[in-house]
Write a structure and sequence with these properties.
Blueprint: H1 3-7, H2 12-22, E1 25-26, H3 27-37, H4 46-58, E2 62-66, E3 78-82, H5 86-110, E4 120-124, E5 129-132, E6 138-144, E7 147-153
Antiparallel strand pairs: 1-3, 2-3, 4-5, 4-7, 6-7
Helix pairs in contact: 2-5, 3-4
Length: 154
């Protein structure tokens, strides 16, 4: 899969807000920090990051300021600062990310499992199966200790 296709799936605005909640940062520093914290799994193009920062800036969630170069050989940098208005947006993004992640996890866990015959089946992501005899029919989902567990009563 190409890098651009993977980048579309990253909740980049959420990552930016999270980083800027810790301290003001400049763009390249943010790209490096995302790569470091994800153990190299998330590699971003700096232009992609700047587009996300521009969207955040346009909505008033992030502001920018220039730093003066301390030494003659250093360049001045544009730092990004998280505004207080971003807190509500951050919560919305986190809730949306959790909802979508859980939905995809449930979808993937649902497919491919075979139900045991008559009775009660308990299947979880650790491939644990146990059968109990119960007389009625229904299907339920449970999330226990961050593990998705499907319960089906036949």
């Amino acid at each position: 899969m190409r890098s651009a296709e993977i980048t579309k799936k990253i909740p980049l605005e959420l990552l930016c807000i999270h980083l800027l909640g810790e301290r003001d940062m400049y763009g390249y520093e943010m790209v490096q920090e995302i790569k470091k914290r994800s153990d190299g799994l998330l590699k971003l193009n700096i232009t992609t990051l700047y587009l996300a920062l521009k969207r955040l800036n346009d909505h008033g969630y992030v502001s920018m300021y220039y730093s003066d170069a301390e030494a003659a050989r250093e360049r001045s940098r544009i730092y990004y600062h998280l505004e207080p208005t971003a807190e509500e947006y951050r919560q919305k993004l986190e809730e949306e990310y959790e909802r979508v992640t859980l939905g995809v996890r449930r979808f993937l866990e649902f497919g491919g499992h075979e139900w045991l015959g008559k009775g009660f089946s308990l299947l979880c992501s650790a491939n644990f199966k146990q059968e109990f005899a119960l007389p009625f029919s229904c299907a339920l989902w449970y999330t226990i200790n961050c593990k998705l567990i499907r319960v089906r009563i036949m």
